[in-house]
Design goal:
Layout lengths: L1 H24 L4 H24 L8 H29 L5 H28 L6 H9 L11
Length: 149
């Protein structure tokens, strides 16, 4: 969990910086800024989680893992955008403080809890998971090369 937290902290810093840069410096809308920052941060998180946080978990194929990772991050993004939309359209709060509190603190926080649970359940599988056995059975067995003299 600590490795996931470290990767998450780095991805959060990327998300926070990119969203604020897009919104404040490039004057993009709140939702556009959050979408762009989440895509960048999710890529950082995927690389860190696959190669470090969950490197002890079984591999079920980069294509499968990455597709699921993107789907689950889209749901996490939906959670963050929902929090941002609630602040803007229900509470009528706008400005940098509301953007950061609802989009980057609450939205990203709730999304992170969801993603941690979902990654362990569907993306980075336990070695005993049946899906891992199916993937391993479908792969051709490696035949060792003869030693040359």
């Amino acid at each position: 969990m600590s490795k996931f937290g470290i990767v998450g902290a780095v991805a959060y810093a990327v998300d926070f910086l990119v969203s604020n840069l897009c919104h404040s410096h490039f004057e993009m809308g709140q939702f556009t800024s959050k979408i762009i920052s989440t895509i960048v941060a999710a890529t950082v998180a995927y690389i860190g989680n696959r190669n470090w946080s969950f490197n002890h978990r079984a591999r079920s194929g980069v294509r499968r893992e990455y597709v699921l990772f993107i789907i689950l991050n889209a749901i996490g993004l939906g959670i963050a955008l929902g929090c941002l939309g609630f602040a803007k359209y229900v509470l009528h709060l706008e400005g940098p403080l509301a953007f950061n509190l609802f989009g980057n603190v609450l939205g990203t926080g709730f999304g992170t809890v969801f993603r941690f649970w979902a990654y362990k359940r569907w993306v980075f599988l336990h070695p005993d998971h049946p899906r891992v056995a199916e993937t391993a059975a479908a792969r051709p067995a490696r035949v060792p090369e003869p030693a040359s003299h």
